[in-house]
From TrEMBL:
Residues 104-125 are annotated as: Disordered. Keywords: Signal. It comes from the Bacteria. Residues 1-22 form the signal peptide. It comes from Castellaniella hirudinis. This is Lipoprotein. The keyword Signal applies.
Length: 182
C-alpha cells in the first residue's frame, strides 16, 4: 500500500513540475504574421536604434517552464519599401544582435540573415540555446525566438512553435521535433 501511495505522490509531483503548453494563437505585425505561444502573451515595446533610425519593436512572449517563446514586430520607415539593401542590413544586424546578446559569435556575412538559426550561448542563469528567425519585409521587421537552458529546450515541444509560424505572404514555418533548424 505504501509503495502505491509513494508512486502516486511522485507522479503527482512530477506532473506539477512539468511546464504546461497551452498554445494560443497570436498575430504579430501588420502583414498577417501569426504563430502560437504557450500561455497568455506578455507584451513589451521598446525603441531600437538601427543606423540613424529608431524602430519601435513590440515583442509578445510567454514562458512555459524554463522556455521563453517570443514573436516580435516593428514597422519600417516607408522609404525602406524600395531599399532592399537597408532591409538586408537590418536583418543581418538583428541576427548578429541575437548572437551578441548571449555572448556567441555571429555567423559570417555569407549566411542568409533570414534563415532560421540555432546556437548556444550564455544567459544570466548559465548556458542557453537560442533558435530564431528574422524576416524583413518591405514594411516590417519580424522575428520569432525561442530561448531556453539546454535541458529545458530538449524537453519542450519547440517544433510545435515553428510549425505554427506563418509569415506574411503565406510562408509557413517548418519543423520536425528534434530536427535541425531550416
Amino acid at each position: 500500500m505504501f509503495r502505491i501511495l509513494a508512486i502516486v505522490c511522485c507522479a503527482a509531483w512530477l506532473a506539477a513540475c512539468s511546464p504546461t503548453f497551452d498554445w494560443r494563437p497570436v498575430a504579430f505585425g501588420q502583414g498577417g504574421a501569426a504563430g502560437v505561444l504557450p500561455d497568455t502573451p506578455q507584451t513589451q515595446a521598446r525603441p531600437v536604434m538601427f543606423e540613424d533610425r529608431t524602430l519601435n519593436l513590440t515583442m509578445r512572449s510567454a514562458r512555459a517552464g524554463g522556455v521563453l517563446f517570443a514573436l516580435g514586430a516593428a514597422d519600417l520607415p516607408p522609404e525602406w519599401a524600395d531599399d532592399a539593401a537597408a532591409r538586408r542590413r537590418l536583418a543581418r544586424w538583428a541576427v548578429d544582435a541575437l548572437y551578441r546578446n548571449v555572448g556567441a559569435e555571429p555567423p559570417g556575412p555569407e549566411t542568409d540573415p533570414e534563415q532560421r538559426v540555432s546556437f548556444e550561448g550564455r544567459g544570466p542563469q548559465g548556458p542557453v540555446r537560442v533558435e530564431a528567425q528574422i524576416k524583413v519585409t518591405a514594411t516590417e521587421w519580424l522575428e520569432a525566438v525561442v530561448i531556453a537552458g539546454p535541458d529545458d529546450y530538449a524537453s519542450a515541444p519547440v517544433g510545435d512553435f515553428w510549425l505554427s509560424l506563418r509569415w506574411p505572404g503565406g510562408a509557413a514555418g517548418t519543423a520536425t521535433p528534434g530536427s535541425a533548424p531550416q
